[in-house]
Fold these 2 entries.
Entry 1:
Amino acid sequence: MAKTLSPGAENAQLQQEYTELIRTVLSVKYPDGAPKAFVHTYGCQGNVADGERLMGMLTEMGYVFTDVREEADFILLNTCAIREHAEDRIYGNVGALKPLKNSRPDVIVALCGCMMQQAHVCEKIKKSYPFVNLVFGTFALPRFPALVYRVLTGEKHVFDTGEESASPLNEGLPVFRESKFKAWLPVMYGCNNFCTYCVVPYVRGRERSRTAEAILAEAKTIIAGGAKEITLLGQNVNSYGKGSPDGVDFPALLRMLNALPGDFKIRFMTSHPKDCTKELLDTMASCEKVAHHLHLPVQSGSNRVLREMNRCYTRETYLELIRYARSVMPDISLTSDIIVGFPGETYEEFLQTLSLIREVCFTSLFTFIFSPRAGTKAANMDDPVPAAEKSRWFSELIRAQEEIAAERSRETVGRVFEVLVEGSAREQNSWLTGRTDGNVIIDFPGDEKLIGTRANVRVTQAKNWVLTGELI
Ligand code: 5AD
Ligand code: SF4
């Protein structure tokens, strides 16, 4: 009788099979030492998490990593499609590889990630960048070793950008974690929301949640490895578990993770306001390991624009959520994403966004000018406002947020925060940089031995939004 394997076991078996074949090929091809791989990930933390799995697989194949592109035997660019600017940069960086490939034809050039999941991009790669050896999309991660094997054994162009996947949850893949004390943990993939500007549902497919069992097992491994912070990832974590057989939804998942023993904090992103429930906020408030930080992208303060964006909430319901969050967690830190210049947005509507951000007082904002993405509804909407005008609105938004952040920063002087010490400060010798639960950076003098631990820091000075402090 045929044995049925769990998705993780099936993936692991596939890895093992091809990884062994690749190790043999590589030991013949590179008899003088391990071949080197250069991996660069663009875009969001979801992509970073994929990148960590790809690096895990490369490690098992026998590659070591280098930061120097010119000395790499394998170059992998893990791409992002969210805005045109990101795509332009990537085309530029791929083009820049041509001389390298001319001088060392043996180098393998591979492209993967969201941008490759679009047919017009693949056509362009085939036509304009024929030196690229391997192109694969977001559904092909478990097949990575099989694809590399095909290239190593002589195929010049390998493309795998289909949506079919026997195990679309990437279970059972090895992970190379770049940080010892901060870990990314994907809980779900894909998005069902089809906001009219967004390409994600097209390049990442429909929502699918990992089982709570798989997530808890990965969290335990991460904690045993000494991590002090776990960030749960998903395009829309609040719809985690919808329709799942084990009945675990996102608040329940948070409670299960919170109950794991160990000295660690839990963060998560991204939340969609339409699915952010009072139960979730109550759960955040009552779970001592969950950081009081909520990234809740509002995108616009105008109800008409929100409707056109298909966001399924209003300015009023958003503000009500914020009020409730602050009532159960007075110290909560709120961050958000804003799009300026959505097709048809008027200056008056933009002013409603400005008034909303002033009303909420976000800790920080990620701000974007609308970028039309092929295949999305908004790409075909009338867009009469000139780019220069949108840039002016954008600057106005940034100035407003800087004022808000400066005011918030001033209020923190004299207060003590617990931070996770993340590394050396960039601008000051023998200073450290730490991050509060609210995702605010504080620089302070201290010994490098503290990196990766938690420390209490009193804020002594606030310059704009940069805080400096002293160890307690
Ligand atoms: N144009 C501009 N910004 C966009 N975002 C997503 N799609 C677009 C687009 N087409 C922004 C949204 C989202 C963040 C991740 O990127 O604000 O929340
Ligand atoms: Fe894009 Fe909207 Fe899905 Fe976020 S929720 S990934 S903005 S479609």
Entry 2:
Amino acid sequence: MFGKIISYVKDGNKLNIEFENRKGIIEIITKDIINIFSAFKYEDHFSRAIENLEIKECDYNIKKEEEFLEVSTGSLIIRVYDNFKVDFYNKNLELLCADYKAERKPFLRRGESQLSALEGHKLVDYNNNFKIQVVKELNGDEKFYGLGDKTGYLNKRGYEYEMWNTDDPTPHVESFKSLYKSIPFFITLTGNNTFGIFFDNNFKTYFDMGKENEDYYYFASDDGNLDYYFINGDNMCDVVSGYTYLTGKTPLPQMWTLGYQQSRWSYYPQSRIKELEKSLRENDIPCDAIHLDIDYMDNYKVFTWDNEKFNNPKKFLSDLKENGFKIVTIIDPGVKKEKGYHIYDEGIKNKYFATDKDGLTYVNKVWPGDAVYPDFSNSEVRKWWSNNQKIMMDTGVSGIWNDMNEPASFNGPLPDDVQFNNEGRGGDHREVHNVYGHLMNKATYEGIKEYTNKRPFIITRACYAGSQKYSTVWTGDNQSFWEHLRMSIPMLCNLGLSGLGFAGVDVGGFSFDCTKELLSRWVQVGCFSTLFRNHSALSTRDQEPWAFDQETLDINRKYIKLRYKLIPYLYDLLWHGESTGLPVMRPLVLHYSNDENVYEINDQFLVGENILVSPVVEQGKRVKAVYLPEGTWIDYWTKEEIEGQKSILREAPLDLCPIYIKKGSIIPNYPEQNYIGEKDIKELTLDIYPGNGQYTHYLDDAESFAYKEGKYNLYSFNMSENINEVDIEIKFPHSKYKKKYDNFKIVINSENISQVKFNNANINYEKQGKQIIILLPAIEGILKIYKLQ
Ligand code: GLC
């Protein structure tokens, strides 16, 4: 398609290459991130994912050889051949990733598929005619991770996917090619190397990860530009950092958003919420937020309240807040078509809605019946939507739940030719569909930020690459199936690798009726996911923690309380994540990519680097096979030390989720609270697993942007161990936030202690079961813990 290389010109960080038939550009973003571009539709990137990209100046060399043009950045060597085929090598000239130079050779599909369609089986729609297609060689052992919220297993090798935001309420199964989110980014891991590819194209895109043929994988699109980034890294963490360098990091949220959240479609009227509030407290279930689904609105009209169900929402929300409960309300994009409804009238007057090809407002159906679609690809419409957030914020709402923003439609899909402003360029639904939710989230974020000056809390169902800057995500309408509990782990792990560090699923399952055993096991996973929300559909069986029996309630309480204990650890991870791009919930392969035993682990995950969780995800199972990677791990419940790099069998009665802490960990804990912020925490507990390790704890006002001006404190703990003693050096490298801790409560998970000294003075300690408790003033110094010899 491109033809032979004719000439090339270096222009700053860009290398412009003239081929016989087209132009191609190699752009050096950093020495490890390279953009491959050819303007098929637009001369520029016109990216919705990448904003304010900092291009790092980098010296690079170009060499022309007989067959190729070679670019070296110091980290990478890139060889460009005729037809814009590009191969990437590391600096030692070891091949990382090569374009497949032959034609694609799909496997043969035998038989007459139309016949099976008669019985309702799906036809395979096979496409070999993409406008843009990049085919890469497979060399045998590649594994693929990322790609957003796709169903199935963690490793995507051997499957095909599509990026087309899809609201499909039938049970999500492995064969789904797409779900609600489009994150055209994946990480390739081979025996020795890893790299990422981000195909920044928001039309429908296609990813075949070696399904069609074991010799290659490809990504492709029907339209848009050839525009992809090759992201090099020494390890998978580097690749995630590189990808989020381009598309943005998950920002630090308000701390309360890490609390337990209770939701259900059908929480109305006001008295039902009061009842809920009472049940939460009576059953001793900590909770920070209650979600109001579409029922709170007047006839499902967004930015309105049904005053029969909620007679004085402002007062009601303020009373709830006094008691520690925040309210999160759902907002759908579909605006009810109804004259006299101010949102509709304003939108019509200003031409804010998408139109058909003749310029008439396009109408489809969602919850309110006939509805129209705000054109979020118009900055004026986004501004209007931002302003509308004020209506919710003024009522006292604390977070916005953006739903149905694929966009969903009940009257068939939006036709391809529905027209959008597309940032003034004009465009149709094919181009805007995948960024519709993304742009709605951006508008919501900007509005909430402006009105509250606090870190906005938004949950979205649909998104595109880069939405992590604006919103948290949940995985949409799962079902109360064990299979969906199982699948939630690879899904959340791959979302995390795809930049969406703040994510969760409907705990207990949305559709279908939950069982007590399923809820008991689900809360054991949910309490470790960043977004922790129990949500279910209307008319399904109740699934609040107390909806079944005493045992189920006790199990829910145990894990929700464990969550509250871990709040400072999770908050620290999010703070770190704002610079590294790493998620809270991580597949083992992220940190142990040299261990082939972890490549396919779908039923375990890490929380940060220190906690390994191996939940039971099968009905009736009371024992779990756990794989512990290299290092020493401590059973959280028994404190038994276990050497890693092996599988073990762990008894797992219904109330026990196998949890392991890495030797050398320091984990901050908060005391029990009904909700975050209930107590003024003056004493920080440090749960310590003696060994060699370092930990930095972060403290700020938990809600505002003052931390961006440096108003925060850092507490650093450096632990080292030898045969005689464990030393912990405590330092405060940054102390600009006015509130400080008074004390540290040091919990040493070891019994064999003879003496403890802090800054050379002997201090008392207390033995409690298998732990030693030490109380220290919160000052800098060196703690020495002498072992019993
Ligand atoms: C969609 C959402 C679900 C919500 C329902 C009603 O199905 O995914 O979470 O409860 O709509 O608003």
